[in-house]
Design a protein that fits this description.
This protein is mostly helical and 139 residues long. It is 69% helix and 0% strand. It is built from 4 helices and no strands. Helix 2 runs antiparallel to helix 3. The protein is elongated and about 85 Å long. The relative contact order is 0.13.
Length: 139
């Protein structure tokens, strides 16, 4: 016969990623992404036959747009619901990759499909990450 024991209390640890960002990451990460994206657009545009000044203007404008969107997402989304955050991140990535494929000479349908697929994958991944990192009340 088993001896009586005290009730066991199970501890639930919140599953949070140990992620403490430096304050300069709020502008540093969007700036790096913008430079990389603008350089990529400039490279692809120049390889498609544009002159260097035209490709440079195209790359700088693309970098400014992507940088502004990434900065706005980083500042605006921490207070939003995880579902809306995931949709916004997926939208930005899908539009950016669809535009890149369009610049490289792809058809509108193929560029839209690639953008949609990348956006949906990003939506799913960011939705999962935001829900894993969310603090759930103890039961």
């Amino acid at each position: 016969m088993n001896a009586p024991t005290a009730p066991v209390r199970h501890h639930r640890h919140p599953r949070r990623l140990p992620l403490q960002l430096h304050p300069s990451a709020s502008w540093g990460v969007p700036a790096v992404l913008a430079v990389l994206y603008g350089g990529w657009v400039m490279f692809v545009t120049h390889n498609q036959g544009s002159t260097i000044p035209t490709a440079a203007i195209f790359g700088v404008v693309s970098a400014a747009v992507v940088g502004a969107l990434c900065y706005a997402l980083g500042r605006m989304t921490p207070g939003l619901m995880p579902e809306i955050r995931a949709v916004l991140y997926g939208t930005v990535l899908g539009c950016a990759l669809g535009f890149l494929h369009s610049v490289s000479g792809g058809s509108v349908y193929r560029s839209s499909g690639i953008g949609l697929a990348a956006g949906l994958v990003m939506l799913g991944m960011s939705f999962y990450v935001f829900h894993v990192r969310a603090e759930h009340p103890r039961e």
